[in-house]
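Handout, page 2. Input:
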Amino acid sequence: MKTAALILGASLFFVSNSAHAAGWSSEVKIKAIETNDTGIGMRIFLTFTTPPSTGGPCLNMSQYRLGGSADNIKQMSTFAVSALLASRPVKVLLSDACDGGTYPIIVGLELR
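Output:
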């Protein structure tokens, strides 16, 4: 019984802190995870085999930055590494904003 509850809980669990985001993407797979520490704090970027979004106001639609609170970013980072290593698909929830007008911001990540 505990195993069934754990499997169900893991399959339904997702991270999100934005009620005003554009909506969940279709299932995509993470191709790479990159970090960038330029002195203004570490930023984490995801690249997908197929982009979760092909349009929008952001200039770079090939890399997506994790956003939200520090706890949200930490949890999404954990999910992203798990999904990449296990080759599991994810669904992505994007913010309506871009990081500096360049990178789309992910505010939710759901393991599939």
